[in-house]
Specification:
The chain is 56% helix and 4% strand. By secondary structure, the protein is mostly helical.
Amino acid sequence: MYFLFDSSSFSFSLSLRPDAFYSLHSAEAIARLARLPRSKAVPAAIRGKEPLPPTQAALNFRKLRAQLAKDGWFKPNLFWEVFYVSSCILMAVGGTVAAMHGWTWTAITLIAFSMQQTGWVGHDLIHGRGTLKREIGYLLTGPINAFSRHWWSHKHNTHHVFTNYLGVDADVENDPVFHLFFPDEKDDVLYRKMQHWYFVPVASLLYFSWRSQSLQVAVASRQWRELAFFALNYFWLYQLGWAVALGSIYFAGFLVAIIVTATHQSEEMIDLSSSQPSEVAAPGGAYSFVECQFATTRDAKTSDPFTEWLWGGMQYQLEHHLFPIMPKYYYAQAAPIVEKFAKDNGLDYRVDTQIEILKRNINTLKFYAQQPPKEKKVQ
C-alpha cells in the first residue's frame, strides 16, 4: 500500500507496510480492498520508493493480530456496547433535568461527563468497526458533542499512522500555543516560557476548538446530516442556558485534554526533515508501523474503578494504537499480551501511573519552556 503526503513544512513520499491499513479498517473494508483491481506496474510517483522489507517485529505483530482476530478479540460484546452508549445518554438527560431545576453545578458536571464519555465511546464506535457502529457513533457524537466524523477521521487516522511525526501529526502540532520542541528564533513567542503554567486552563478549551473545527469542515464539505445533528446540539445547549452550556463544554474539554495529551507528548518526536534521524528509527529516519507505536506511546496505570472509567480506554493508548478497531473494553486484558510481545521482540513497553504520566506531561512542557540550548561551535 502506498501513501503520498504533502505538507507546508516539508514534502515527502512514504511507502507504508500494510500493517497501518489493516489495523485501521474493518473486515468489510478489507474485503472491499481485495475486490479492487491491482496495478501490475509500480506507479511512477513511487517508483524507487518501494516499501522496506518488514522487520521481524512487524512480521511477529502480523501473526499476533491474526491470532487475536481468530480468537474473537475484535468482536463486539452487546452488554458493554449498550452500557457505554446508554450511560452517555443517561448522564446527558440527568444533566438536562438538573438544569431545568436550577441545579447549575450538578448540570455542568453531569453533562460534562456525558460529553467526555461520548467522545471516548464515539471514538471507539467510529474507528472502522463497520457500518452499524459508525451510524451509532454519528447518532451519539453529533447531538451531544457536535463533532464531525468527516473532520475527525481525516485528522485522527493521520495521527494513528504517523504518530508524533512533526509536520504531519496535528495532535502534537499545537504551536505557537504549546511547544513540544525548541522553535527557530524567528518563530519563537514570549509566552512559551510560561506554557507549563497556562497548559491546563488553555488546553481545557479543547472541546471549543474541536466543535469549531467540526463546524467549519461540515459547512465547507456540505455534510448536511452532520449539520442537522449540530443544530440539535446547539438548540439543546441554548435551552440549558449559557452557564450550563459553556461550563459543561469547558469542563468536558478539561477532562479530555489532560488525558489525550499525556500519552504521546512526552515520547519520541519524529522529524523527517532533520539530518539526524532518531537512533531507534528505521532506515531513512522513519519507523515501521509497529515500532512507531511503541516509541511514541505510553500507557497509564489507573488506581481505582472510577479513574479506569474516566480514562475511557485511553489509559491503554498503546493497545489502542496497535489495535484501533478492537473494542475498548478488551484493552485491559490485551495489555499483558502486548507487554509480553514487547519483551519477546526487544521493544520498550512504556507505562506509568496516572499521576506519574500527568507529571511527565507537565515536565515536558516545562522543559520546552526553557531557552533553547546553544549549539556548540565546531573547532
